[in-house]
Amino acid sequence: MEKEFQGEEEFAAMSFYQLEDVLFGLEIGPEGDCVQALSRCEYKGTEALTMDEEYHLMRKQVEETEGFDMDFTQFRYGFNYKPVDFGDNKLVPDGETMRGLLDRLSRKSLELYNDGKATSYEFLEVSKANYHMAGAGVMYFITFLAKQDSSDDPKTFQAKVHYSCIDDNKYLTCEEKCSLH
Prior knowledge:
The protein is an alpha+beta fold. The protein folds into two domains: 21-80, no CATH class; 98-176, Nuclear Transport Factor 2, Chain: A. The chain has three helices and eight strands; from the N terminus they run E-H-E-E-H-E-H-E-E-E-E. The protein is globular, with a radius of gyration of 17 Å. The model is unreliable at 1-16 (pLDDT under 50). InterPro entries: Cystatin-related_pln, Cystatin_sf. This is Cystatin domain-containing protein.
């Protein structure tokens, strides 16, 4: 069974569904000690930033985009917020692909949006997604395209979904992307 939050009170009470603080990623080094993780993205920064500068830049991007539109190529270090690799199926159930999972979560988010707004948007495709681990699951920040009928231009939507390994998925937000994001 899928669950949608109905009110702000319930949402506020579930603080682990809100934006998570930015944290540096850690990996186990060759001698068994924890070391800073490096970003898995191709670094395209014009100049190397210090760890503190990268941390503050990541925090700024998370806050300004609410987790959706971050430029991970600006970072040498890895953080808890990461871009989804559509070819990596480690975080999905057996028999499903990452793309299939994100399509399914997006379709359900859009269905709840349509029910609440009395609209009839149809899902087209996921264009990108970010995530961070959250409790016994994964918080996904999914950007996807949808349109109302065949003559309309596609609209960009953003959905925040907590995908759980042991509980119902939580469909937290689904909104048409505003031009500020």
